[in-house]
Amino acid sequence: MSKNNPFLSAQSQMRTAYEFLAWQYDTEFAKILYPERVIEVNIPVQMDTGEIRNFVGYRSQHNAARGPYKGGIRYHQDVTKDEVMALSTWMSIKCATLDLPLGGGKWGVIVNPKELSERELEQLSRGWVRGLYKYIGPLDDVPAPDVNTNGTIMSWMVDEYSKLVGRWSPGTFTGKPLSIGGSLGRDTATAQGGLYVLEAYMRAMWDTLAGKKVVIQWAWNAGLNMIELIAKTGAILIGTSDSHGGIYDANGLDIARIVELKKNKKSLEEYSGVEHITNGELLELDCDILIPAALENQITSDNADKVRAGLILELANGPITPDADKTLFAKGIPVIPDILANAGGVTVSYFEQVQNNTNYYWSRAEVQEKLKLKMETALAWALESAKTHNVMLRTGAYVVAMKRILEAMKVRGM
Ligand code: GLU
């Protein structure tokens, strides 16, 4: 196993928190250290050339003590089984941190979707559902978008699933387009939820976002939405990046220009008149708030001591390793952890599922109001727990979430 294996990180985070649960759930704890089930599927796809290529995918169903497995589907060339297992574990903890009646799951397919045509991508997505439809459903397992997947892919999947089971089943996937039962506000929910938490955290510290220098790693999806949202608070974006590298301007970057480049699928390399830096250098910029919004293992024992941010908001899943967490804690850099900071996505996914299952749809304002309340309440629980146990916010949130999961397992006699 590699040095920064994300599954070992997830287990280590759970072990740290379990200490504060007074060893009341030993049998249950031994179980949540591992996913309940990991399924590997082979998905043959006829490529445009006529050649058949086989793609490998994993579905990790971590824990369903509190409700159906819930989590996204990732398409990425570097996907590994351990990564999917970690991401599913974090989903269980995330849903419990927010007190959503859901468990945790994750899908990952080893593919670089940029190399596939639209037809090939659709075949892959439908093939995936054919391989796994027996294991999913509104009361079993409810997938959603994640890295490199989106509403279009959810549409193909929900259509394939509904054909296979013989009835329209919108509640089996979330993150769908509005025209087929998506929720208003789901598209920007991860960033919006992150901003609600960040603003509430600043208020708790008697501070505000106005004038704060912000760095956002990865101007895409949640990161790009966050760039647009945070600009409206009076904060100043001084650095951001994409897979080609970063851009930096201490006086503030032009948000409209970044959004235009990225929405036209152009690289930030084309943004002229600013300093061009690497993604590594971006993480070491002197700033008030650093927001990693890309993949796991960005801040590790190799660079944690060079981080100069005043506060970190983890919009990505698992961007900081447990070793790096300790270094940051010792340096006095607070971290608003992924299981809280990026939980807006799954929270509005839950709202979407509720709307699908009741066939009654809410206004955008209703969604935002409910999301804000959920995020602020979860932050208050995590802050209180961290204070009680004198630990970092991540551990505080884990203690709250794990108690909920372990207690559900115990009363069910799992
Ligand atoms: N992929 C997102 C996450 O990691 C959302 C999952 C969902 O909506 O189920 O939280």
Radius of gyration: 20 Å
CATH topology of one domain: Rossmann fold
State the share of residues found in helices, binned by percent. 40-55%
Poorly predicted runs of 5 or more residues: none
- The percentage of residues in β strands lies in 15-25%
* Count of helix runs: 14
Give the strand tally.
12
The main β sheet shows up as: 7 strands, mixed
General shape: globular
The largest beta-sheet arranges its strands as 9-8-7-6-10-11-12
CATH level 1 class label of one domain:
Alpha Beta
Tell me the series of helices and strands, N- to C-terminal: HHEEEHEHEHHEHEEHEHEEHEHHHH
Ends distance: 30 Å
Structural class: alpha/beta
Query: What is the arithmetic mean of pLDDT?
Result: 96
Determine the CATH superfamily of one domain. NAD(P)-binding Rossmann-like Domain
Bound molecules: glutamic acid
Please outline what is shown here:
The chain is an alpha/beta fold and 414 residues long.
Q: Can you put this structure into words, describing what you see?
A:
There is one protein chain. The chain has 414 residues and is of the alpha/beta class. Among the domains are: 35-168, Rossmann fold; 189-341, 3-Layer(aba) Sandwich (Rossmann fold). It is 44% helix and 18% strand. The protein is built from 14 helices and 12 strands. The protein has a 7-stranded mixed beta sheet with strand order 9-8-7-6-10-11-12. Strands 1-2-4-3-5 form a 5-stranded mixed beta sheet. Strand 3, helix 3 (81-97) and strand 4 (104-110) form a beta-alpha-beta unit. Helix 1 crosses helix 14, helix 4 packs across helix 5 and helix 6 crosses helix 7 (222-231). The model has no long low-confidence stretch (mean pLDDT 96). Glutamic acid (GLU) is lined by residues 70-72, 144, 146, 174-175, 317, 342, 345-346, 349.
